[in-house]
# Entry
Amino acid sequence: MEQTYVMVKPDGVQRGLVGEIISRIERRGLKIIALRINVIKEATAKEHYIEHETKSFFTSLVKFIVSSPSISMVVTGKDAIRVMRTIAGATNPVDATPGTIRGDFALDIGRNVVHASDSTDAAAREIAIHFKDSEIWKYSKIDEVCIYE
Ligand code: UDP
Ligand code: MG
# Structure
C-alpha cells in the first residue's frame, strides 16, 4: 500500500469544499491516516514547493499557501499516489477532466484547490515535511475486505 500527501489548499477551505474532497477520497476506497487544519508556516511551504524555487510563480504560490488555513492529509491505499493525482485532475484546471476535483471546482492554475504528491519520492518527502510519525495512524477498516480482493 502506498501513502501520499494531500492538501486542500486555502481556496478549497475558504470555498467550503473540504467535505466534498474528503468524500471523494473516502468513496474511492482510500483511507485517511493523518489529518489536520492549520496555517502552514512560510518555511514549510517553501520546503514543500522547493522544486519550483526558481519558477516565476514560486513567490505568489508560497504567499497563497500560507494565506489562510489548509487541510493536510496522509492518504493510503493501492496505488494511492497515482489514484490521488487522477482524482485531483490536471494542474491547469482548464485542462482538467470533469469528474476530477480541479475539473469540477476550479478555473485558474493558481487556485486549483488541491495538492497531491506526484511520485513515491515526493510523497515520502512531503509526508515527512508535514507530519511526525506519531501523527500517522496505522489502522484497519472493516470495508477493506470489500475494496481489495
Ligand atoms: N502553479 C502556478 N502557475 C504555474 C504552474 C503551477 O500557479 O504556471 C501552481 C499550481 O497551483 C500548482 C502548483 O503551482 O498546483 C505546483 O505546480 P506543479 O506543476 O507541481 O502542479 P501540481 O503537482 O500541483 O499538479
Ligand atoms: Mg507538483
